[in-house]
Structure to design on (97 residues):
């Protein structure tokens, strides 16, 4: 068998020219079939080719059913996900869920 290079897309970088709001992406989420990115200047949804500004793309920093009072003192949520069964998994600064 002859070995030869195989071209493969490793990553694609997007900027404001592709429709992302200016600034560093602070949050990125896959919500169903939607991919939403949030910067300090707004949110955008990816349509498969370009990013389009959206007012409905707000990504929650913490799960909607969780409040800061639910967290141990001094901790913050670093990421979270919800299963298809509705259970919420939370990662905090001390990596507990």
């Amino acid at each position: 068998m002859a070995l030869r290079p195989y071209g493969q897309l490793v990553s694609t970088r997007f900027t404001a020219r592709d429709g992302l709001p200016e600034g560093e992406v602070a949050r990125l989420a896959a919500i169903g079939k939607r991919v939403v990115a949030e910067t300090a200047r707004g949110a955008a949804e990816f349509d498969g080719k370009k990013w389009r500004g959206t007012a409905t793309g707000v990504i929650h920093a913490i799960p909607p059913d969780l409040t800061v009072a639910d967290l141990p003192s001094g901790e913050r949520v670093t990421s979270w996900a919800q299963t298809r069964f509705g259970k919420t998994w939370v990662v905090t600064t001390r990596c507990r869920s």
The chain is about 0% helix and 30% strand. The chain has two domains: 17-59, 61-97.
